[in-house]
């Protein structure tokens, strides 16, 4: 921690609390019926997105998952645009066409949340291929869960990235459950990171509740990728404090288990304790950061609520980018 | 000076070569596209000319490399990926229909995905049920994909160049039975715009809409019918999405009779789609029921005797045309 500048540590703290506040607000808004569709929240896993993203540049790429709000925010996504998207508004980052599961912003290298488990992993490989071919010096990071590690795309992507030595880092957020099924019932190896061996690349396990530990392993992997030495698989052991989706009855785990994690392994609390114990910040400073983050979330929600819905006519727009002579976006004449 | 005549394979190869020469962001990925030059020879010589960074032999990982094409396109490249046989779609369909096709729309139009997915279709090679299908209807069904299916070397070259220059994902389907056919092809680079059908033969009594290899069968049938005094117009849509509906409708309005010939399975197909267009938009011009000439709804059999019976024949086309001409209300 000594060598990480205070400014960066505070950025990490700010991002983590911003994600937490925003997710808690999303839970509240979902419960009120104000967010249509499915919402998968990132509470408890903030240290993973933030620890990784603290090593990325604006020109770097990420691919995300259905649980993607934290990645979007930590990559520098506009909170107002995200909230407007959650509410299905025209001012949303996807103009109300994507929603929670598809938030994206290519201008910041966020290649999209994804509704298909494992669907985005090869996209990161391709972005890394473009980085390498175009000599841009950028890297790509794929975020995905433990459930995705049994999809073909996981194995195909690791293999492809390894044989082509691409600048990509694969980050498994192992939160112990693929929806309801505990990892011990869906994966035979103790650590998913072991699977890296099969592709001849480094595999690293890290405590996903410790943002500084994530930062360190991500730093090494990302620098390695930037040096042209190829991909790394990082397994962050983490835990989601909320259900798989909002409204999940969570019959597959006990209240005690959830409470134990929230009490003992809350990544924000752990980080606060470290920052205070080492005298890097004062409690007042942390409060000020929290207050600022809270305000930003409130402003984003207000912006989203006050924004207009799309015009129903916009339904037919944005399917294709280049118009053609023949019939392209089909609608039977009535 | 006579026109230069080359094969479909040569025309496609020339298109790739010329666009790669011009645009360094065009790269090729696929199984056996490099050292081998493509299983049908379409990418021959490109590895030697453009190097392994631009012409990439891939592992047998269709979901992996087609997915990678999506990320590469989003990050500034123009990948041309090859799915060796359209039948292999099953192992990578998510990357095509949930990812490639939807990303632009899901992101509110803020993404461009200039990808061309080249693939091969078509029966007649005794390759049986998993290497012979014509599955273009599956791609037409899913919004967000452009679908191109050429029938001549000239069309193939111009359409492939236009597809690679296009900023949207294009599924470019090459019929294996047409790779060896020859036709006049200009040496210089040219484009055929997507969404423009070609009237391969003008006629006044019956309209045939046919795709890929069926265009040639329809033209042969038309020649024989002509001798019997039946004048047939043959339309090749060339691109199935976008579809040049106006050219098809104008022809139906002129002839009043429609036969659709397509190698796809019979239901929820390109043929039924054209029939629906005729029923919904040209009903008052039709003098006879629309006839569809397609294979039956069975997997494609291996035995030559069975496979030949599966593929729509010239005889089927002639019979269908005669039925619509002879039809009395």
Key terms:
heterodimer, A: 334 residues, alpha/beta, Rossmann fold, five-stranded parallel sheet, two-stranded antiparallel ribbon, B: 329 residues, 2 domains, seven-stranded mixed sheet
Measured between the Cα atoms of the first and last residue of chain A, the distance is 66 Å
Strand content of chain B: 15-25%
How many structural domains of chain B?
2
How would you characterize the largest beta sheet of chain A? 5 strands, parallel
Stated plainly, the CATH topology of chain A is called Rossmann fold
Quaternary organization = heterodimer
Structural class of chain B: alpha/beta
Runs of chain B in which pLDDT lies below 50 for 5 or more consecutive residues are none
Principal-axis shape of chain A equals globular
Q: At the first level of CATH, what is the class of chain A? A: Alpha Beta
Count of separate DSSP helical elements of chain A: 11
What is the N-to-C order of secondary-structure elements of chain B (H for helix, E for strand)? EHEHEHEHHEHEHEEEEHEEHEHEHH
Taking all Cα atoms into account, the compactness measure Rg of chain A is 20 Å
Could you describe the largest sheet of chain B, including whether it forms a barrel? 7 strands, mixed
Helical coverage of chain B, percent range: 25-40%
Low-pLDDT runs of chain A: none
CATH superfamily name of chain A?
Thiamin diphosphate (ThDP)-binding fold, Pyr/PP domains
Instruction: Return the string of H and E elements of chain A.
Output: HHEHHHEHEEEHEHEHHH
């Amino acid at each position: 921690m000594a060598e990480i500048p205070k400014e960066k540590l505070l950025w990490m703290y700010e991002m983590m609390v911003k994600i937490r506040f925003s997710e808690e607000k999303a839970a509240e808004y979902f419960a009120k019926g104000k967010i249509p569709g499915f919402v998968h929240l990132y509470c408890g896993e903030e240290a993973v997105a933030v620890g990784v993203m603290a090593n990325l540049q604006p020109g770097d790429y990420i691919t995300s998952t259905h649980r993607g709000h934290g990645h979007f925010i930590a990559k520098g996504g506009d909170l107002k645009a995200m909230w407007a998207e959650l509410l299905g508004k025209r001012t949303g980052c996807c103009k109300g066409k994507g929603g929670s599961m598809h938030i994206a912003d290519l201008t910041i290298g966020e290649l999209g949340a994804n509704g298909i488990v494992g669907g985005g992993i090869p996209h990161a490989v391709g972005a890394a291929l473009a980085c390498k071919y175009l000599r841009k010096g950028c890297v790509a990071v794929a975020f995905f869960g433990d459930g995705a590690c049994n999809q073909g795309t996981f194995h195909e992507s690791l293999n492809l990235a390894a044989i082509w030595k691409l600048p990509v880092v694969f980050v498994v957020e192992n939160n112990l459950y693929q929806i309801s099924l505990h990892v011990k019932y869906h994966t035979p190896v103790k650590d998913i990171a072991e699977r890296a061996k099969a592709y001849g690349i480094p595999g690293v396990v890290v405590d996903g509740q410790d943002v500084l530990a994530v930062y360190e392993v991500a730093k090494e992997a990302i620098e390695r990728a930037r040096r042209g030495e190829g991909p790394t698989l990082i397994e962050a052991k983490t835990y989601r404090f909320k259900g798989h989706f909002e409204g999940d009855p969570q019959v597959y785990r006990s209240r005690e288990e959830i409470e134990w994690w929230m009490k003992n392994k809350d990544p924000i609390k752990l980080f606060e304790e470290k920052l205070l114990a080492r005298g890097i910040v004062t409690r007042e400073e942390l409060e000020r950061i929290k207050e600022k983050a809270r305000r930003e979330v409130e402003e984003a929600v207000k912006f989203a609520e006050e924004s207009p819905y799309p015009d129903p006519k916009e339904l037919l727009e944005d399917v294709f980018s280049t118009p053609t002579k023949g019939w392209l976006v089909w609608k039977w004449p009535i | 000076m006579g026109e230069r005549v080359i094969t479909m394979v040569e025309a496609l190869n020339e298109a790739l070569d010329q666009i790669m020469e011009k645009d360094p962001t065009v790269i090729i990925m696929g199984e056996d596209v490099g050292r081998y030059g493509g299983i049908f020879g379409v990418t021959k010589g490109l590895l030697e000319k453009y190097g392994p960074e631009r012409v990439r032999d891939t592992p047998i990982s269709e979901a992996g490399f087609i997915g990678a094409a999506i990320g590469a396109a989003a990050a500034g490249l123009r990948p041309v990926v090859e799915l060796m046989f359209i039948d292999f779609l099953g192992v990578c369909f998510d990357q095509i229909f949930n990812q490639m096709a939807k990303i632009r729309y899901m992101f509110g139009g803020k993404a461009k995905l200039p990808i061309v997915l080249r693939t091969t279709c078509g029966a007649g090679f005794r390759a049986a049920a998993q290497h012979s299908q014509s599955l273009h209807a599956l791609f037409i069904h899913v919004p967000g994909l452009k679908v191109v299916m050429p029938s001549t070397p000239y069309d193939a070259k111009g359409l492939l160049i236009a597809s690679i220059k296009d900023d949207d994902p294009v599924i470019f389907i090459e019929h294996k039975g047409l790779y060896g056919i020859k036709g006049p092809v200009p040496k210089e680079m040219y484009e055929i715009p997507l969404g423009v059908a070609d009237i391969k033969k003008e006629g006044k009594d019956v309209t045939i809409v046919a795709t890929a290899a069926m265009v040639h069968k329809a033209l042969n049938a038309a020649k024989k019918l002509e001798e019997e005094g039946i004048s047939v117009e043959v339309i090749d849509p060339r691109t199935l999405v976008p579809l040049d509906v106006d050219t098809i409708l104008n022809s139906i309005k002129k002839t009043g009779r429609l036969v659709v010939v397509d190698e796809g399975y019979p239901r929820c197909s390109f043929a039924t789609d054209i029939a629906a267009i005729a029923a919904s938009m040209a009903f008052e011009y039709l003098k006879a029921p629309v006839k569809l000439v397609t294979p039956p709804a069975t997997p494609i059999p291996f035995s030559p005797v069975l496979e030949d019976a599966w593929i729509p024949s010239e005889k089927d086309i002639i019979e269908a045309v005669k039925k619509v001409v002879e039809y009395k209300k």
